Structures are given as structure tokens and as C-alpha cells.
Amino acid sequence: MKNLVLILALLLSVGFARAEELLSPNGNQKLEFEVIDGQPVYRLFYKGEAVIKDSRLGFDLKNEADLLNDFVVDGVKRSTFDESWKPVWGEVSEIRDHYNELAVTLNQTTTDRKMIVRFRLFDDGLGFRYEFPDQPNLVYFVIKEEKTQFAMPGDITAWWIPGDYDTQEYSYHKSKLSEIRGLMQAAITPNASQKAAGPTTVQTALMLKTDDGIYLNLHEAALVDYSCMHLNLDDQDMVFTSQLTPDAVGDKGYMQAPCTSPWRTVIVSDKAGDILLSHITLNLNEPCKIADTSWIKPVKYVGVWWEMITGKSSWAYADVPSVQLGVTDFSKLTQNGRHAANTAHVKAYIDFAAKYGFDGVLVEGWNEGWEDWFGKSKDYVFDFVTPYPDFDVDEIRDYAASKGVQIIMHHETSGSVRNYERHMDEAYQFMVDHGYHAVKSGYVGDIIPRGETHYSQFIVNHYHYAIEKAADYKIMVNAHEAVRPTGICRTYPNLIGNESARGTEYEAFGGNTPDHTTILPFTRLIGGPMDYTPGIFEQDVSQYNPDNHSWVNTTIARQLALYVTMYSPLQMAADLPETYEKYLDAFQFIVDVPVDWDDSKVLEAEPGDYITYARKEKGTDNWFVGRTNDEEPRTSEISLDFLPEGEKYLATVYHDRKDAHYKNNPKAYEIEKFAVTNKSKFELFCASGGGYAISLIKVDDPKALKGIKKH
Ligand code: NOJ
Ligand code: CA
């Protein structure tokens, strides 16, 4: 009898402990969820292998009981979803949103508070979020910390940057998880605003690889009214726990039910290319909220920019230590002679843009206030509507319009979010009145209100406010130094770009590592497009500014590849017009390459080593291929089997010469033309820090290929 009771008790406990299982539509991913000793726990398997081990879920709350323990499952709902949608712009023209869902309602027995964890399992990974339904015992609450765990399957490899509440402008490190602590201090390189988040805290999107060759990517989707998540590693047990960005008083989130957290995402595959092609981040965002999107258009642009970044020219009009808007009479200041945003010079850029078919010209330094914009924590630093005396806004508007070119507005806020919000309506109205349709905004330096950082809930809400308000004015936004994107461009496709990582500008501030662009698509670009500003043909920055000895760590051929490998509907040709005029044969690729696509394929990829993409231009039969390579010379082997059967194409191949090298021979490129079909294959040399680009233009009349080598 005693034994029977024991057996029964055992059976019952096994019965209670049975985990809820969820499979992805193709069965490759399996999620398990259960409550163990009152704590919600999930785990994830890929093709039978545990990729996220037992990981707890919940929250530490301020001034009330935590949402971590004493839970029971109060209900479980399962569903399936399979729909396709068309992005306004993108890497593909149609995206399938296909998942199986498990929504678990948890009740905390000691407090009678409810929390739903909603899991969506796609063929390429997992998304889950917390939901707080309307209920009497949990209405207003303050998050002390989110305690979502991601238990790693061992001491695996990561491509990471330091956790920081103010910047993502770091170089990536590849290391074992256990090595992060030892590398952290050296990884925190200087920035205009930075606040390190901890000795083992890293940022998302975090790219990982197991010893068995399974790729994992941890990020978040739909970061709305919540603070940005970092990942804090327990490097004994190899468990990451979410670490939210605190606000000025140290709190991490002010919530009012009903509400939700952003989605936490785990993209998983045994193919690196699948991570790049995953649409989980977009799929977990809300559908487009802008009714008429006809005014949202991808943009290829040049700009009055690199000359300031290199120090050849200046944003400021005068070299004076202090100015005050509304007080200083700028027309009385002595001009420094290096102010690039002057009417004549901007017109020359407009001419260049018109000659080569660019959509836009970005002009920075056009407005009063740049003399002391940086590092002074000035509240009222810019008004966003008052041009310098040598920038004739009407003349430029008319000239640009006559040439069919758009001027792209620039709103540097200098981190003074308060000041920007105060001027935003007037600033956007000024744009409408002067024919501007896109703005590059920026948040250099420490945030005002003081004590806030770039990624707190409060400031995340500001970036969102700016995007929504811009949509009211039919303005497209490209925000620099803002929080890294989380797929919000699905909901607000007027968010056509973000920086939120170490961009090309750092090539003029000492340089980016040659492998940088082989990592960014696996990390920063998982959340959305980056305004990386490629196209630098002159590596020796001292050619522009004798005092700047930076070197752009790339071959010219690799710069061309970036227009394909760094997906963005907003692409800049960042170098100076006079430099492009010297290399017009290579520049032709930048002229030809589109910024919007019907289809994208990854031909080769390994984070930190190389990426080769092929993409089909939106609305045409033309394809473009780009390959970015790290510091190790390699041979890329690709097949053009993605081309349609039986069709003929003219391939123009822009590749590194055998003697090319990013340091000592970066301009050694060769351009070759071939007649190709979908049976063609290429073996192409990629130099150290090099790569290649190929345009594939469909030829209807075979005579057009006369005299061109078949390949
Ligand atoms: C930093 C941005 O990333 C850069 O593109 C811009 O030129 C400067 N801020 C000045 O606003
Ligand atoms: Ca920047």
C-alpha cells in the first residue's frame, strides 16, 4: 500500500511536471515550457540539440513583490499563423509570417497577479514576450530588472561589443563567452558619450556559434515604450540575463497594464546565411500604421559630409568658442573659410548628384550653432530652422528642384532631446516648406535631460515620437546615435535608416577593423537597415586633411560590395565628388546599384570572415552580387544558379587584383565583362580587406553580347 501511494505520488508529480511543447512549422525548432518550483522556465532545441538550456523568466519589481516565483499555469492557448505581407521597401518583396504559438497564462498564487508569456516558434527561431493583462492586483508597476535568462549550451563563441547605455559605436570582438570579462576593458574604446553596463555585459543583436556549428542570434523586436535590453553574462554557468537600461533615477521601466514587453528573439540555424535572411524581427512587429506610404521612397544620396568627418572642412561657420542662438549675430562673425555648407559648394554637390542620377544631397552644418555644439551639455544648441548667412535655403531649394534632386535635412540634436522636442513641429514644418522629404537626425554627446542615457525607456519613447511625428509631416527619418533598431520600420517604414553602430565615420577617426562589415549584418543589421555610408575610394585620409593620418581599411572593390552586403533602402556614396571623378569606371557600380530589392540570397557567409549576397533589383530582372572579406585573402566560389533558366546576362565584375591589399594596395581593382547564364560559375580572388561586386544585367537581344567573353 505504502509503495502504491509512493508510485502514485511519483506519477502525479511527473504528470504535473510535464512540459508544454511547441514545434515550429517544419519541426526543426522545439520549445519547452514548464513551471519548476513555482518558477517559469523555457528551453529551446534545434534539430534535437539543446541551444537554450533551462532558462527562467520574470521580473524584479520596485516596491512590491517580484514576478519570479510562486507561479502556476492558469491556462494555455495554442494557435498557428501563416500569412504573407509586402514591405514598403526591403530585401524581399514579400515576407511570410509563419509560426506556431503558445500563450501561457501564469498566476502568482501569493499575490493573485497574472502574466502571460507568449511564445512564437518560427522555422528560423523563437520570439517571446511578456504580457500583463488588465487585472486588479497589477496596474501600475515599476521594473527594477527584467530577469529573462538565455542559458547557453556551453562556453560557445560570441561576436560581441561591450554593453553600454549610451553607444554601440564599438568594434566587435570574437571570443569564447568565458573570455569576455578579460577582454572587456580594452574593448571599451572612447566615445562622445558612453556608460559601460558591466564587466560581462554585452549588447544585442548578439551573434553566437556552438562548437557543433549551430548559429544563434539574440536580440529583441518591437522595442516600444520600454528600455533597451543588454545581456549580462554569468560566466561561471554561461547564462545570459536581460539587463535593461536604467533611467536617470535608476528605474528600468514604468508600466501600466494592460501592456507588453518587447519580443525577445532567438534566431537559430546550422547555416550562417539563414540568420542573415531571417525575418523574425520584422514579423514580430506590428503591420504598417501609415495609411498612405506613397511618399516613402528608398534614397541613394551623396552629401556635404565626408569632408567634415575627415577634418578637411568644418560644420561651423566661424572659429569662435561660444555662440548663443538669438543673441549672436552670425553675419558679423569672421568666417573660418572652411565652412562646407555654403550655397556655391552645395550647388556643386547638386550638380554631381544630378549628373550621376542620385536622389539626394545631404547637407550638414547648414544651420547656426555648430561653433560650440559638442561636449558643452548645452540645452539650447540648435533651432533647426536658422541657416548660416552663407547658406541660401531658398536658392538651394529652387536649384535642387530644377535638377530633380532632393536636399536631405540634417538635425543634429547634440543629445539635447528636450530641445529637439521643443522645436520639432517647427523644424518639420520648415522641411515641408523648403521641399525636404528626409531628415538625418543625430544624438551626439550626453543626453539632456541630464542623467538619461541614449537607451532608456524615456529616450526610446523620444525616438518613437520623432518617427511618428515625422510621418505626420510625410518625412523619412535616418537617426544616428539612436537606440539600435528592432524592426520598427515594418510599422513605420518612414524610418529608413539608423546608424546605431560603428559606421564608416570611424575610418576617419582611426579606422574600422577589416572584418567589421563581415560581422555587422549578423549583429546590428538584424534589427534593421544601417546608414553605414560606404563608397570611400581614397583610403589615405591625409589626402584630404594633412593632419588626419587615419587609413580607411578597405580595398575599393570591397567598398562597392557594401552596397549589396549592407542592406539599406538608404545608401550614401560617401566620398568626395572629385575622387569619384578619378575612378569613374569603378564608380559606375555605385551609379547602377539599386536600393530596393525583390529577392535576396546569401551565397557564402561566416561571421567575421566573409559574406556574399546576391540580390534582385525591385521590378527588374537584374541582379547584383557583393562580397565583403576580412583580412585573410580568400577565393570566393559562387554559382549564378539563382538567375532564371535560359536567360542571358551581361556580368560586370569589379574585383580585387591579385596584388590588392587594404593597407598597401587598396586601389588595385580590375573590371571585367562576361556573357553569363544560370550555368555560370565564378572563382574570384578576394584580397585582404577586399571583396568584389558584380552587376548582372539581363540582355534580351543576344547581339548586345557580341564580342563579350562567355563565362
Ligand atoms: C555623428 C554622425 O554619425 C555623423 O554622421 C554626423 O556627421 C555627426 N554626428 C555630426 O552630426
Ligand atoms: Ca555616429
TrEMBL record:
Residues 305-501 form the Glycosyl-hydrolase 97 catalytic domain. Residues 23-287 form the Glycosyl-hydrolase 97 N-terminal domain. Residues 1-19 form the signal peptide. Residues 596-696 form the Glycosyl-hydrolase 97 C-terminal oligomerisation domain. GO terms for molecular function: carbohydrate binding; hydrolase activity. Its cofactor is Ca(2+). The keyword Calcium applies. Keywords: Calcium, Hydrolase, Signal. Monomer. This is Glycosyl hydrolase family 97. It comes from Mangrovibacterium diazotrophicum.
